Amino acid sequence: MRLASPKMVRSSIGLSIWLALVGASLSPVSAGVDQDGRYSNASNVDGSFTRLKGNTFNPTSGQCVLYSVLSYDSTAPRQIESGIVKCNGASIDGTCPSGYSFVERFNGSAYFCTPGYAFDPIYQYDATTYRTSSTSTTFTGHINGVFLSQSGFGLSDHIKGYAWGEATGGSACPSANSGSFIDWEKYDTSVGWTYVTSSTVHRGSSGMSGAPCWNVITSTGSKGNFNVHD
To answer: Whole-angstrom Cα distance, residue 219 to residue 230?
Structure first.
């Protein structure tokens, strides 16, 4: 999903949500978005990883609620995002349905989503975005049976790692939602994977009443763990 604020880094950063109309094909929805989580302070992020656990999802009509990790290049711009989603009469980009893992990419002008396997909220799911070397402009995302890559990322230090809960579609925040980000790590091709111990709260919202939808964003522990909840 597009960042709501830095483009709004979808303008909040963003997915495209599609509404499932009865007896018709999926149609795009113009609606609100809210994102609440954290981004790594390091400026040399070649990937992000976390074990996602979506504790509760309660999307309103025409809305998707998701928990994800992503790599975002604000200057290209490019984005790759891996997560889990539940929707109510909607989908991500018309291709990623409710109850499935997904990887979404942004190529600078449009968003594309590929679904993985169905998920169960009682389990944790390894979500990853990364590039294989510091000279590669291609990032890959994977989670629970799906891999997807996006080329065109920059080589300078403008790529951040994000982890957040997001409500997209509809006009009002969902209620009683909670997600956990366990063992949140960043990747530096020169040193490997390390826990994110220095991060900043990200809140981005556009056209969503009741925002922020996740009022509480806990501090990260020594292993990068944090939670988002009402």
So the answer is: 15
Position 230 scores a pLDDT of 87
Let me know: does 47 contact 131? Beta carbons within 8 Å: yes
Strand partners, 64: 87, 168
Average pLDDT estimate for 66-70:
98
Strand partners, 86: 65
Residue 111 in any domain: the answer is yes
pTM: 0.89
- 9 or 192: which leads in pLDDT: 192
- Flag whether 5 is in a domain: no
- Short-list 175, 110, 116, 172, CA closest to 141: 116
Nearest-angstrom CA–CA distance, 181 and 125 = 10
Residue 220 identity (one-letter amino acid): T
Cα dihedral across residues 62, 214, 56, 227: positive or negative: positive
* Domain that residue 24 falls in: 17-229
C-alpha atoms less than 13 angstroms from C-alpha of 97 in its C-beta half-sphere: 4
Q: Domains in the chain: how many in total?
A: 1
Domain assignment present for residue 46? The answer is yes
Kindly report the CATH number assigned to the domain that includes residue 89.
2.60.120
Average confidence (pLDDT) over 70-79: 94
Closest CA to 95 of 18, 5, 164: 18
For 81-100, what is each residue's pLDDT tens digit? 999 999 999 999 999 999 99
